[in-house]
């Protein structure tokens, strides 16, 4: 019953949550994955900020009054590289110092370069009039190719900001954007493939012609560069943003968002406070009705723009934030309305739930009573089942013991049968060989008697001193033994070889039935294990038998201590 209550409450709370939230996103899973990745990077923004401050602190440790002007200039440049998209006021300090140093050193080219950097900072912070005054006073006659590109690029950046700042005045906006396009056409004569802004610059030239062959080539090269990048530098951020714009012009929404996310990731990692990509993403998320995430992104942009500071971007961000604020308020009002409806529904459902709980409680009491009766029946049944199980176990134990006795009896019968058969065979063999030896002995006696009567003493000596007769008889004896043994156990040799390593197996000579090695273990098979008795039978020394048995055990593929016992079970008896 408790489980049922919990499940009912879970369903009710889930229903209430769905009614209250009312969020249905049209963002597909791939874009959601990209935004989640951006969220994780944004969550670590404080870490990247600490890394940026640590780099700046390291540079401050290198400051000294003893630095030469050139050294001071290069140290200032390093400060500028860290500050120019992080803190415009601090960057401007180092720009003005380097302008003065360049003038002191009489380096007009350096002075012009730092004046252009000043134009960038003035434009970025919204001091557009001051930026225009500085660039108008510059003498561009002696600028090299790289500085000429930077000059036109700075003017492009300035007019782009002027167009954004004008806002609701179409004639002025069109004028500045036309001036921007004209300056781009001039600047392309000065940009080289080696320049870090080469691809992003040409991509911006072809934004109005997205399907041109040159535009496709630029896009392919930029895609390759961005996809291989670590998204941790200013150029990565610019290249990704430019690529996003190209896909936007082609109507490819997924890749537009993808590369905006890449640009935003790079900007956050370098602590760029002049961040445009995240601002655009906020506007996109507004159209997707992802208000919370969009509001978080635009809040980060506003904070960054105020810290930079960028007056132009603050104006644009305020416009987006105003839309998100209204959407946020509208959503809250809708949610409050839905919440009230949900509370009414919850009240009705609570009453229904209370009635259901009372009904369930009554049924539960009946179920408890039935369960107790069933438990008692089960207890009695289990008791009888246990008694039956014990009886079955006792019967199984008796059957097992009987099986073991039968198996032992079967083994004993087989051994007795085999023993009787071997005895029968070998008794006949012994009687036969004894009779043969008695006949031979009688013939030998008669032959000795004849030679004594004839006085052939030398022949008698020759007969008694020669071992030829003995060797011949032994050979015949062994042959008879081998024949009768193999008659009883015809598979012995094959089974014996199976116990040895393949390269150590016994190979019989032509005409041999058994050799000495096999004959020793044939006697073991017959139950004669004593080396002394085996030696007497084979007419050799016990040491010879021992050495032979040891040598054979060393060739075995089974443990040595099991070899003799295994041999006693070899060879299927021939019946």
Detailed description of the structure:
With 575 residues, the protein is mainly alpha-helical. Among the domains are: 26-274, Serine Threonine Protein Phosphatase 5, Tetratricopeptide repeat, CATH 1.25.40; 419-466; 470-567, no CATH class. Helix content is 78%, strand content 0%. It has 23 helices and no strands. α8 runs antiparallel to α9 (170-187), α14 packs antiparallel against α15 and α14 packs across α16 (311-453). The longest helix is centred in the middle third of the chain and has 143 residues, at 311-453.
Beta-strand percentage? under 5%
> Tally of extended strands?
0
- Number of helices, counting only DSSP H or I runs of 4 residues or more: 23
Name the poorly predicted regions: 1-26
The helicity comes to: over 70%
**What gross morphology would you assign?**
elongated
Order of helices and strands: HHHHHHHHHHHHHHHHHHHHHHH
Biggest beta sheet summary: none
Mean pLDDT: 82
| CATH architecture label of the domain at 26-274 | Alpha Horseshoe
CATH class of the domain at 26-274: Mainly Alpha
Which structural class do you get from the secondary structure elements?
A: mainly alpha
Radius of gyration, CA atoms, in whole angstroms: 54 Å
What is the CA-CA span between the terminal residues?
78 Å
Looking at the structure, the CATH topology of the domain at 26-274 is Serine Threonine Protein Phosphatase 5, Tetratricopeptide repeat
What's this entry about, in short?
The chain has 575 residues and is mainly alpha-helical. The chain is built from 23 helices and no strands. Residues 1-26 have low confidence and may be disordered.
């Amino acid at each position: 019953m408790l489980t049922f209550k919990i499940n009912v409450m879970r369903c009710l709370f889930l229903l209430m949550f769905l009614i209250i939230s009312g969020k249905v996103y049209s963002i597909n899973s791939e874009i959601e994955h990209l935004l989640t990745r951006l969220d994780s990077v944004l969550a670590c923004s404080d870490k990247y900020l600490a890394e940026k401050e640590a780099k700046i602190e390291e540079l401050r440790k290198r400051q000294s009054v003893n630095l030469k002007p050139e050294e001071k200039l290069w140290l200032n440049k390093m400060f500028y590289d860290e500050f120019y998209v992080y803190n415009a006021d601090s960057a401007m300090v180092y720009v003005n110092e380097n302008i003065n140093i360049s003038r002191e050193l009489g380096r007009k080219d350096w002075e012009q370069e730092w004046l252009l950097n000043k134009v960038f900072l003035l434009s970025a912070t919204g001091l557009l009039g001051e930026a225009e005054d500085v660039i108008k006073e510059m003498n561009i006659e002696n600028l090299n190719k790289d500085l000429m590109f930077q000059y036109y690029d700075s003017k492009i950046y300035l007019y782009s900001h002027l167009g954004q700042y004008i806002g609701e005045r179409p004639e002025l906006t069109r004028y500045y954007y036309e001036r921007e396009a004209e300056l781009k056409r001039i600047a392309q004569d000065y940009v080289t493939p080696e320049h870090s802004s080469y691809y992003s610059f040409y991509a911006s030239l072809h934004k109005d012609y997205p399907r041109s062959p040159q535009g496709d080539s630029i896009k392919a090269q930029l895609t390759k560069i961005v996809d291989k990048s670590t998204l941790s530098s200013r150029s990565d951020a610019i290249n990704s943003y430019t690529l996003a714009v190209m896909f936007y012009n082609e109507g490819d929404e997924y890749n537009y968002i993808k590369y905006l996310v890449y640009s935003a990731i790079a900007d956050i990692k370098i602590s760029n406070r002049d961040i445009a990509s995240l601002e655009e993403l906020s506007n996109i998320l507004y159209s997707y009705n992802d208000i919370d995430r969009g509001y978080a992104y635009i809040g980060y942009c506003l904070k960054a723009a105020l810290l930079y500071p960028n007056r132009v971007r603050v104006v644009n961000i305020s416009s987006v934030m105003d839309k998100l604020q209204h959407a946020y308020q509208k959503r809250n009002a809708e949610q409050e309305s839905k919440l009230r409806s949900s509370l009414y529904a919850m009240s009705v459902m609570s009453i229904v739930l209370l009635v259901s709980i009372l009904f369930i409680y009554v049924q539960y009491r009946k179920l408890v009573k039935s369960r107790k009766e069933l438990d008692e029946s089960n207890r009695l049944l289990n008791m009888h089942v246990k008694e039956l199980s014990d009886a079955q176990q006792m019967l199984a134990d008796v059957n097992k013991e009987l099986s073991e006795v039968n198996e032992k009896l079967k083994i004993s019968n087989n051994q007795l049968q085999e023993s009787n058969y071997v005895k029968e065979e070998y008794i006949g063999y012994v009687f036969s060989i004894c009779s043969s030896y008695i006949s031979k002995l009688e013939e030998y006696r008669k032959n000795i008697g004849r030679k004594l009567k004839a006085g052939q003493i030398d022949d008698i000596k020759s007969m008694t001193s020669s071992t030829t007769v003995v060797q011949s008889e032994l050979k015949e004896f062994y042959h008879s033994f081998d024949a009768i043994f193999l008659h009883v156990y015809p598979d012995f040799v094959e089974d014996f070889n199976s116990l040895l390593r393949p390269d150590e197996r016994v190979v019989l000579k032509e005409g041999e039935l058994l050799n000495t090695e096999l004959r020793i273990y044939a006697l073991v098979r017959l139950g004669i294990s004593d080396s002394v008795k085996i030696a007497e039978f084979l007419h050799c020394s016990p040491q010879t038998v021992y050495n032979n048995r040891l040598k054979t055990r060393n060739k075995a593929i089974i443990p040595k201590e099991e070899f003799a016992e295994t041999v006693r079970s070899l060879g299927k008896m021939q019946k």
